[in-house]
Every structure is written in C-alpha cells, then in structure tokens.
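Why does this matter for the project? Reviewers at the last site visit asked to see concrete outputs rather than summary tables. In response, this paragraph embeds two records directly. Each consists of the residue sequence and, immediately after it, the corresponding structure tokens. Nothing has been edited or filtered.
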Amino acid sequence: MGHWLDDTAQGLAEGRFSRRQVLGRGGGVAAGALLASMAAPIRGLGAAMSGGTQCSDGHVCPVGKRCCGKSCCKADAVCCNGLCCSAGQVCCSGACCLKRDCRNGYCRCKTDSDCGPDQACCDGNCCAPNQECCGGNTCCLPTQCVNNECKCTADGDCSTPNQAGICCYLTCCSPDELCCIHGGSGDCCDRETEACCGAGCYDIETHECCGGRTGTMICDKATHHCCGRDCCDPATQTCCNNKICCSRSAPSQSCCGDACCDDARETCCGHKTCCKNARETCCGGESCCDKETEKCCGKHCYDPSNAICCKNTTLCSTDQQCCGTNCYDPKTQVCCANTTTCPQGQKCCGTQCYDPTKQGCCADKPYDREKQRCCGNKKLCAKDETCCGEACCKPGEKCANGRCTKGCGNQGPCPSGQVCCDTGKSAKCCSKGQMCCGTGTSATCCKPEDCVNGTCKSDCCSALGPTWMCCGPGSPCPGCCSRSGGGDCCSDAPVCAGVPCGGFGAPGTCS
C-alpha cells in the first residue's frame, strides 16, 4: 500500500495520473486516505501548474510573493524571522522597525503591544516582565524606582530584554552612552558628541571643560576660555596664574598670585595676598597686619600686648623670654649662650647643657666626672691620668717641665720630694724645696719665691748689679755671669769662682 501510494503520488506530481484514475485504482477508502496524505504534493502540483512557489513547510506562495516562514512576503519586502517587514523597515534582531528605531540591534517599541506579555514599552525599550517604566523613560525594578528615577547598584539592574545597560553611580545608561561620575553623582553622555566634565556632559564641538575630567566648570568656546578650573570672559577678565579670573573693568583688579587685588583699595603682598591700604601693612611678603593693633615679626603678625618677637623670627608668649630664636620659661629653664635652653637643675657649658651632680664642664664641653678629669680648663684626661700642663700623664709617668716622662733625663725618676727640671738638652733633679723655674732651655732650679716670670733671680750674679744674670747649666759657660741683653755668656767674663749659681766667690775669668 505504501509503495502504491508513493507511486501514485509521484504519478500525480508528474501528470501521469488524473484524479479520476487515482480514484478508480484505489477505491473509495484508499483514495480518501491517499488524497488526504497527498494534499501537499497536490498543492505543489497546483503551485507548479499555476506558477506559484512551494515553501519548505508545504504552503504555496502565489506568483509575485516569496516564502518567509509561514508567511508569504512581497518580492521587495524584507523577511524578518517569519515576519514581512513593511516598506522602509529593516530587520532588527528578529523584529521589523524603521531604521531610525533600530538602536543597538534592537527595535524601539511604540506601545506595550509591541512588547511581549507582561512587558511595558518604556521610551522605545521593552522592559523585562519584572521591571516597570520609571519616570516614563527608564526600565528598572519597582524597588529601584525612587522619585521617578531608577537607582541602580549593578549593570544588571539596567538591562532589558532588548539591550544591556550600564549602572552609572545609581543612574542607568544605555551601552551607547558614556558614564560620567564625579563627587558622588553620575550622568549619561552621548559617546559621539559629548564628553565628561565632572558628573556632567558637554558638547565637545562648542564647549570645553575647565580642569579636565575632574573639573566642574563648562565654558562656551565662542565667548569664554578656561583659566585653570575657572571660566574667564577675555573681554572683561584676565586669567591670573592659570587659576583665577580677575576683572579688567571697574572696579579693576590686578593679579596677586592666586588672588585678585582691588587696584583702588588694596596692595599685593608678596605675590600671595591682598592688603587693605587703609589699615593693613604687608609683613615679610606673606601676611597683612593691622596697623593699629599689630606688629610684624618676620612674616607673622602679632599683638604686642600678648606676645613678644624673638630676633624677628619667633613669636613667644609674654610669660616667656627669648633665647636667641627660641622661647623659654625663666622659671623652669636656663638660656645658654643665647642659643640653647636647658631644664631647671642643669647648667650651661658653652652652648650645651650639663648635670652638675654627675658632670663637669671643661673647655665648654660637658664631661663625666667619674671617668675624666679637666686639666687647666683646657684638657680632658682620663680619671687615672695626671695633669701636666696641657698634657695627660699616664700611670707611671711624671710631669717634668710640662712634659710627661718616666725618668729625669738619662737618670731614673727623681727621689721623692724632688722635681725634674728638663731643658730639652739636659735634665736634673732639683733639690727639695726647689722648683723648675722657666721653660725650655732657660729652665733652672730655684726656690719658688725666687722664680719671677720664669727666671731665678737670687744667685751670685745678682751681687754684680741688677743687669747681671747667671748663665744656666745648659750654656757654654755654666756658672758664669753675663749682662742681660749682652753677647754670649762668656763676654764680660765674671764668674762665681767655680761656685754654682746661688753662692758667691771672688770674680774670675771665663776660660
């Protein structure tokens, strides 16, 4: 039966059988079944016989139309997802609409009927079933519609079935818009013709944003220009320091750094601030001080009734005093060398402070008295060292004529109670009760009371007169006498009869 039906259907399609022949061959029931199953081939046969087009689903489109899903469209119409678009319409993501209404690949709706079930048409866009048209222009959830404005928290809050959205700081923007955020607010700008200026939009052809994207001032290029973050009118204003606009018309102003000074009543102070001519004076190029109640202290103003100025630099309260450029309280502090302030209980050592209970002061430097000693207020020596003029003698050394030595010349240390007198060329131990008088080559031993200005005066030569002096043991003629200021020690020739200086004998001749 199946084979017969196939053959019969093919015969009908090719024109080999007529309908009467089919009925005669198959009988009533078989013919009825065959005709029902062969409806499409018969229609196809009819379409072929009439010049129409058979579509893929079996229906036939008449001459002059073409298949479009289950529809037949005019030959010049656009087939769009089974729909025939009207003249002037385009296929926009499976829907027909005018080209101008096809935005971002989706058709803008006209009424709710253009959208699906439970969807609202909102300013040309179909909202999702769970959204509402907020303010008549934006789709969002009912909970996000506040005062007719959609407040989004994520891009998904702004998306609709037709297009994705952008959440621009609580404001929903479409994908072809630019999100501008600044200072806790956002705005949607046209990407092609606008740019961001803070949270606002401006036309890039006719306007400019002062201060870049973080600026907030928008200038009309035809009449104004940017001055930093401000907008100046070049006909009446001057841009100062690229920050502020100053007036050129009455009352005229002059630039003063980042300020504008009134030419009639103010003076620029140090290119920083404007001082009132009538009652202010400029201090240090920075501050404007009241002429009647204030004075200048460098670049600061102060009231002399409650402050003092130290060296035109530092301001101190009236219960303080100046210590150079520092302030100090004389009740609790000490000023050292007009430079340093020390707390109560400490003393000054030059420009430094020291604790007199633990420290000493030597040559204007504090030192630890448990570890050091001061020699002649000039030299600091270790505690186990002894002072020797400006030298420090270590343990085992003795001080001889301002020098530290372990002996006295070529001999050993002097006996107890005697001192070594070293001239640099020779050395001897002075007798008990004597001292080494003088320094260097003129040093000699005598009693302390006879040492006057580094010279021993009581000797045998003094009997010859006040102009005579004894030639010391380091001279070519030790024991001889010579006039002071004379030649060498052997001129004038008197001697003390071989008796060392300090005794007296008959004069003799130097040999």
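We now turn to the second protein, recorded in exactly the same manner.
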Amino acid sequence: MNYFNKTPRYLMIASTSFFASFLQADAVVEEGLYRNNLKNRFLTASALPRNSSLHSSLVLEQWSLAPDKNFEEPSCQKPNSSCCFGIQDAKYVYEAIFESSIFDHYYLQIAEKAVHLKHLSEDIKTLLAIPSQTPEEKRVLHEILLRVLRNKLDKRETLKPNEQEDLDTLSFYLLADAHVFPQQSDIMAEYLDLSDEFIQSKPLSQHVDDAFAKLEAVFSSTSQYQKKDPNYFDLHLDGFLPTPLFSIDSSQYLYMFNPMIQDKRSKKNTINPIFISYLRHLKKNNQKHLYINVQSRIGELEELAESAEFKGTFFIATFNKDDDFYYQENAWELKSDASQFKKNLMQSFCECEERVQWPQELLLNNWYAKLPSIFDQIHAEHFHNAPNLDAEKRGIFVEIACARLVQEIRNFYKPDYINATCAYTMDRGPGQYAADYVYELFEKNGQLTVKEKRSLLTLYFISPIISQNRPSHEYRVIRLSAMLRVLFQDDTSVVEEFERKRPVQFF
C-alpha cells in the first residue's frame, strides 16, 4: 500500500527516520484515513524517500473548525510574508505543547495506562510506544494517533464489544485522566514570580493585573502561533491536550477543547468522535459530564445531550459571555438603576435562540423562579443593596452571577466531570473556570491560600500562552481582577494549608 497516494491540505515533514518503519506497516493506517488525491497538490509519491534512514516524510491533513457565528476568531498576527516564497518558518498553534515537557508527560501517562487495555489494537499500542524527540516528530505522532483512533471509532460497529470498550477507555484517558497541570505551572513560572514570599506580598487582584502587564510586555515582541489552515477548526488535532485542573466536592474540572470539528468550505459540522467515545465510557460507568458553554449555542451538542444514548450522562448549559449586556456597553452603559438591572439580568438569562440554553431538567425544577432570589442575594452581599450601580459594578455583578449559576447547576447535577469552554478555550473558558474556582473558595472559606493563588494565576493565564503564544485579552483580565477586588476586600493574609479542609483541590 502506498501511504502517500492520498493528499492532505498541507505537508508536514519529520526530519529523521522517526516514522520510517512504522509508516510502512499496513496495519497502521487503513485505506481512506487520508483524503484527497495527491495529484496536482503538493508532491508525487515518487518524490518522497520512503526508505531513507535519514529522512522520512509524512503527509497529514489538517482538520480545523473554521469560525462561524458560534466561534470567536482568536487574535492573530499577520502571516509571515516568507510563507509566500515557500519558506515555512512560522510556528503553528500549540507549538509550546510540543516544545515543552507537557507532551512527554501527557503521552507517557497515556501509554502506561493503555498497557492494561488487553483488546486495544496493536497499531495504537505501537504509536504510543514510539519515542519522539523533536517538536515536529511529536506533532506528527499526535496527529497520527488521533487519526488512527478516529478512524477506528468511525468503524466502531465492526469491532467486538471488548474492543469498543477499550477504545472508549482510551478516549477517557486522553480527555480526562492525563495530568499535566503541574507542567503548565512550570511554564507559567518561567514568566512570573510564583514564590510564596512574592505571592504573599500583595492582593490577588494586584497579582492578576501585574501578571498581565508582565506577560503583555514579554509577548509584545514575539510572533503569535498561526493556524495551518484557517478553513478548518479542530482543536484536538491542532495540539490541545486536555487535563484535569481541580475538583470541587465530587466534580473534577477539566481543561477541555471545544469538541466541534468544522470545515468552512463544505459548511460541515461534526462532533469529535473521541469526545463521543469518552461519553460512552462515562455512561458505562454511570458517570455524568456537565458542559458549560460560554459562547453561542451549539445545536449539535444540545442534540447530543438530548439523544437517547446520552440523556442522563451529558448535560450542556449555555450563556454567551460576549455581548453588549455582558459587557454593560452601548445601550446598557448608562442604565444604572439596580432594580431594573436585575430585571434585565433575569431577562438576559432566559433561554433564547442564540445566546442562552439550559438543560431540560433544570427548567423542570423551576429554574427561572429561583433566579430573582439569587440575584437579590448577590446584590445584598456584594453590593450592599446599592440603589444604583455603575457600568463596572454591573459587569462584576454579571460575572459573579455566572459563577453562582454554575454553582447551582453543579449542585443540582453533581457531575463527575465538568468543563467551561468557549470557541478556543483561551479567554472566555479559562475566565469562567477561574471565576468558578475563586467563587467557590470565597463561599466556603472567604479567602485563598498562597498555593491556591499561585494555581489560579496558572489556571487563568496559561491557555493563550501555550496555544497561541500571546497573553490573555486585557478586557477579560480587567473583569476578573475587578471581581476579585469585590470578593476579597483584603486577601493579603496568609492562610495555612492545614487550618481547614479544602473544598477545592488542584491536581
């Protein structure tokens, strides 16, 4: 079989013999894994040195979800003009994953767990056993593994039940059971002083402000990572590696990618089959996943949640944190009456066609009837029932309300796993689970320990750094910092770890 007679939309070349022998094994990549004929695209099969011990070549296709109205395009630098002359010197999204120890720790854990899957196919086990050295090799390995796994999941019905089960377990490992938050923290420590003494020296809100200023200065002179093909969106294939972040009571928060795959040219939207396989693992083990979506509604995921297969296993709630009311701008900017604001807030959280959606079980549990009392409580506790609130305070009110509603939903469903995700999980998503984290600590303890403050800085700032080589968006940092000032009036006191039981625990 000639593995290079199928064309991808771009070419990635591994510069060593890393994959040479593996690529020639017919069991590895089945016919049809790569699409489109090579003819008239990039290279002919004869141009690729199949057997060279110094140079093996791998053709890969980029699947990436192109932003439509549901997807906020990330801020990007202008493409390097050298690309027009055939000089491929740009770095692609998630390059930091492949350049750092994150990739190695992640896949070492996956490989160790996969050894115990007796019915996992040999080609996947072989992939997991391949040593990789360079960032290019690591990216190639990651993409091949995901493509092989997706191909098998697409043909799931042809497999035996125990083979299906092992694939679902592997999907669970990939999405929820490889712990690399410590490695993310190591990267954060390269840019910020995270020592105990420094963390103790100022309020958390000031740390957030100063961290942004420092990161903005660092990355102002660097080029942002680029997407290989802007016509596709597929964060997992691009290099997004999910990991557990922290737990609240019995729920584990996951750093999770948007599971939609979209081809802008064909307008085709699909759900990542590995995400569906992960849900099958949860269903088999009587576990639940709550998906907090902070962008526009995603009909495919809502349909998945209501499907016969996953009803009772997968739940999704949507509130879009990217409109004029959320920012209290334009038509809302001067409307300072607090009573009217709470009525408007109630209306903004009512289900609508594009922005808001709640799981059916919540609606049947008188969800809307509970909201006014929740907003009154926030008004009294954090804003002293002030009759008028300026735009900044109303924005903070909205942020606290979002965290409080997630808390209510979490307490209602008691999910085993939960994620807060936007389009790219770089700004809105991290902002939501950072808000969930600090609000829970405020409710239970009133303040954060030094370790928790240090973890929060990584939790909030790391995603855009490792995904796109940029700092977080300033306007979202300002909102988080303002929320922290309201919640923690004086958070400079040192809280010993052993003084109280922790309701929240980082992995």
